[in-house]
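Lecture notes, unit on binding sites. The following record was shown on slide 14. It pairs a sequence with S-adenosylmethionine.
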Amino acid sequence: MSDLSETGGTRHADLTPWDRAASGWNAHTGAIRAWLRASTDLMLLSAEIGAGMRVLDVAAGAGDQTLDVAARVGTGGSVLATDLSEGSFGYARARAMESGYGNIETLLCDGQDLPLADASFDAVVCRLGLMLFPDPARGLAEMHRVVRPGGKVSVLVFSTPENNPCLGIMASTAAKHGKLTGMDPFRPGSLLSLGRAGELEAMFGQAGFSATVSTTLSAPFMLASARHYIDFVRESGAPVIAMLAHLDTAAQQEAWAEMEQRLASFNTATGWAGPNELLLVTGTR
Ligand SMILES: C[S@@+](CC[C@H](N)C(=O)[O-])C[C@H]1O[C@@H](n2cnc3c(N)ncnc32)[C@H](O)[C@@H]1O
């Protein structure tokens, strides 16, 4: 049985956008798992995760990659899944419980302010979370502080806007319908905020990491149709949902319909393949 202890941590009275999107993100776990399979494997390999290690998973969400870590560290190791969203965590705990892993713990906390001891982990991973932090440099500094000397920190984020056209289509269409101006794609906390060439690697250096290695990974999202992608984003894409939240239902529907029509350009003979490119950066403390 899973131990599933939740230690200390920060309680957040207000719902985050990710709390509201948590059920959608959880409902699409199968599709997300397939989409991120190869990238996740490479992230865990780069972090050199192996049997017996104590690993921190930052911004773990519904805990999909946490289970992969738990499998790799085995019964002699453990993984602590942390996230800001209480909503996501309910799913993470349920998934860990169903999986039967007894080596997963969860902790509700801000990745920019980890209530964890210095050098208390062998490795740290963060899948598609760091770019959402208001202050990612602080998040990286915290990861550097809690990993042991010689340990790896491996982070996966979206790369450039040009190589993530689906995100660009969603954001620009939502901005147009929501009459939102001045939406810099690199603004802090946005999906593409760490997509400027060289920026994340430099941030690793500033946080004190050495031997930083960076790789771009093609990660197309393969689904039956553009409609399936729209359904996924409508239910789980917190940043896009937030951009449309002030519109009435009919106006929101118009925006989603235009996104679907624009995304249909990625239809193929066998379904829909939305291009995505991820950036995997790993540093050593
Ligand atoms: C796109 S989801 C990714 C979840 C999971 N890592 C995965 O790949 O399935 C982003 C997650 O980052 C979390 N998050 C955003 N800002 C955070 C912060 N400052 N501290 C901790 N978690 C944060 C959200 O709550 C959400 O669960």
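Take-home: The first strand starts at residue 54 and ends at 57.
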